[in-house]
């Protein structure tokens, strides 16, 4: 089985800004540079033939390149903790691209995604007992803002989970059309 997801990889200067926003707070488990991404569609575990059909469907997507900027931070809460993330703006082009990817996945034979799309770049995971520290960090980083960057491709990743954390392998890069 192959654990797949589709994402945008921010360019190096944006990743540097995100890494600069991290601190050495032991309350947060920060993600590594190579793990920074914005998930457009989590596909999950699929067999090789479906993986091939997904890759082919994604390769047929035509979508114009667009600009995105990092803005602000927020957090998701799950039962025992959650994720601290950086937001992006504007939302419209990234949501349209995600919708197009969703249609391609469904055409290829993937079950439709029922959950709403919340574009974000996960910066850290946190545990419920450290919630106060996470809220404090969220306040300190409220004015996080990057220059706009060009999104001119998206990536199909295979995720390899291990005790040492996830490793994301690039399976395919799909270029976006020239902006404007
Ligand atoms: P770990 O699971 O070890 O914490 P991870 O969540 O980064 O690592 P994956 O679970 O393979 O690795 O997820 C890959 C990407 O897909 C991540 O951005 C993750 O947030 C996202 N993702 C995972 N599961 C879902 C899901 N059920 N719905 C939406 N996005 C998901
Ligand atoms: Mg996960």
What is shown here, in short?
This protein has four helices and nine strands. It is α+β, with helices and mostly antiparallel strands and 180 residues long. Bound molecules: adenosine-5'-triphosphate and magnesium ion.
Please give a structural write-up.
With 180 residues, the protein is α+β, with helices and mostly antiparallel strands. The protein has a single domain (2-175), classed as Cyclic phosphodiesterase (Cyclic Phosphodiesterase, Chain: A, Alpha-Beta Complex). Helix content is 27%, strand content 38%. The protein is built from four helices and nine strands. The protein has a five-stranded antiparallel beta sheet with strand order 2-6-5-4-7. A hairpin with a 6-residue loop joins strand 8 (153-160) and strand 9 (167-175). Helix 2 packs across helix 3 (91-108). The chain starts with a strand and ends in a 5-residue tail after the last strand. Adenosine-5'-triphosphate binds next to strand 1 and strand 3.
